[in-house]
Amino acid sequence: MAAAAPAAAGSGAGRGRWAAATVAAWGGWGGRPRPANILLQLRQGQLTGRGLVRAVQFTETFLTERDKQSKWSGIPQLLLKLHATSHLHSDFVECQNILKEISPLLSMEAMAFVTEERKLTQETTYPNTYIFDLFGGVDLLVEILMRPTVSIRGQKLKISDEMSKDCLSILYNTCVCTEGVTKRLAEKNDFVIFLFTLMTSKKTFLQTATLIEDILGVKKEMIRLDEVPNLSSLVSNFDQQQLANFCRILAVTISEMDTGNDDKHTLLAKNAQQKKSLSLGPSAAEINQAALLSIPGFVERLCKLATRKVSESTGTASFLQELEEWYTWLDNALVLDALMRVANEESEHSQASIVFPPAGASEDNGLPHTSTRTQLPQSMKIMHEIMYKLEVLYVLCVLLMGRQRNQVHRMIAEFKLIPGLNNLFDKLIWRKHSASALVLHGHNQNCDCSPDITLKIQFLRLLQSFSDHHENKYLLLNNQELNELSAISLKANIPEVEAVLNTDRSLVCDGKRGLLTRLLQVMKKEPAESSFRFWQARAVESFLRGTTSYADQMFLLKRGLLEHILYCIVDSECKSRDVLQSYFDLLGELMKFNVDAFKRFNKYINTDAKFQVFLKQVNSSLVDSNMLVRCVTLSLDRFENQVDMKVAEVLSECRLLAYISQVPTQMSFLFRLINIIHVQTLTQENVSCLNTSLVILMLARRKERLPLYLRLLQRMEHSKKYPGFLLNNFHNLLRFWQQHYLHKDKDSTCLENSSCISFSYWKETVSILLDPDRQSPSALVSYIEEPYMDIDRDFTEE
């Protein structure tokens, strides 16, 4: 519906209401004008939808008079004219001219807002963007942009790309500077969906994509891509640059929304949410992932983008055009700031002739121009590629963790993503920093926000997702390395891993080294304080996860991984909890059931002093080290049941195995593991403490020592003056364990594969411990005295 005519030309009831509102703002016809009151009432009208809401509710004479005192830069009057020239039957020529007048008033302010002039801007009483929004400018531009959705006599209205571009630019600048505008736009779901249709034009693509990204970032409910008209056609027609930029939007639409509340990350809350989700069906993120995977060639194009070399990227001219867009499009202001600085530095040496006019310079098109010599600095090309690959790798990573994981795995293997990334590893992904390494404005080279740093982390996250519990992990090796795995199995006289035999050799890495080996090389060179250590360890650990493979372990042991981990834990005395946890987890997977690994451990930790430093790190936080404790405990149990001279030698010499074999040591670990967790605080991170405590008790049960361990726990409770506290807590934890694991196939399979203990034995042990019969010597209730019994507490979360 068209908006009402301006007050100056109106009459009747409409004019009466506006006149009354104006009188109120003036404090009555006889009062002194109060501009602050006007703005206050406009703001109130914006919130309630009643009273003063738009410039058209004032006369032009009134607005001009007030502008002289309040310095509104003529914006309300321009909005009055814009309304008058943007009606349904307008040719929009005059409308576009007015937009050209408004645009610089807001863009200059927005540019200042994201640069060093921000403080000055904030001191202004009523910035232009604020006035523009307050007098209804945002709503008016939304109406203008959506004119093509209105039909007159069966014909759709059209507005030019240039006019759409101006509207989008003004809207974005207002979002940048004025609080609440983005959220209001996010509430207009029909407008958000409509914006996607504007991406069909290359002229308006970048502006539209950037505005959509900002809107979706604050939208309470995730948008559904299957509601976007002709989504498949839209995405299929994107060129590679557009597709890479579109991935920024996809990052918001395919990731499950995070509440930001730590309580919601507890397993109780997650289980409750899963029950709720089952009744509601697939989430919006899952629907969006499925919609994208149904687009022909989508994943293949992402793989090509991710593995494209810098020399293969789009030519200089098109990149310069995009830089020009960035120059006027503030979403990329920080990136552009970095690009411009490097361009200026390198132009002195390379004679690159890229000229950027100063902010506010009067250009015909407001864009930077290039001379006939357009030699683009290499660092700009690299940064261009890095920014693209960041978004693409993120989308691929999310898809790899989604419901269609196996489908995505099959496709990215087929399209040779892993060999392609291997070829880019040295020159782009893990390239050496130059003296003028590129960083964003206000950040430093080691900041996690740096594009170089973020690319490395995203790359490592992708490797972790790709390798985790999937036989395609062997694509991280080259042919020679796969042969090495076969040779290790042959020498050890054990069957070759079936997944190695089934690996399609045409899809593996080429070159002298595979991706896993390259990762190990940079991992060992990483500085002690590097934030990459955590992600590197996680990526390598994911290669070892699942059913333990002796050949996989030996492949990594032969490359010095165990010694590197021990150096970091013991000699560098790592202080980061996250890094320590990732190193302990990796060490556990590397050593589990492997006699050679324990021999190497004992050779490195060859003094009591070193061993005490190691134990200090282990005992400093069992949440971080419990997976190692579990793996050593499981290994000890297996070794004790083997008749082998090599194993007997390790059992007699290894300090770590001797330490874990002592019952007091096991009881100390067991008591602390149970004591540091509670049902209400269980998360995906610390639930491993519960499972490690169960492993200790299952192995005790095998040796018919379960009653002894429970009796010792009871004594430890009494010695701490808290009878019943620990065992009641453990009883509740085991009840939760039954609810959590008996309905989740993946988790139960993981427990079975990682421990080599059948899941039926896990279930039986838990049932025995929860037996209500107080006469049972293996039931927890037999060791909780009646006055201290508290085992029926309801811990469910609705």
From TrEMBL:
Keywords of this entry: Receptor
Matches recorded under InterPro entries: TRPC4AP
GO terms classed as biological process: ubiquitin-dependent protein catabolic process
Any GO CC annotation of this UniProt entry: Cul4A-RING E3 ubiquitin ligase complex
Gene Ontology MF: a single term: phosphatase binding
Pfam families in the record: DUF3689
UniProt-recorded name of the protein: Short transient receptor potential channel 4-associated protein
Organism the protein comes from: Phyllostomus discolor
Source taxonomy: Eukaryota, Metazoa, Chordata, Craniata, Vertebrata
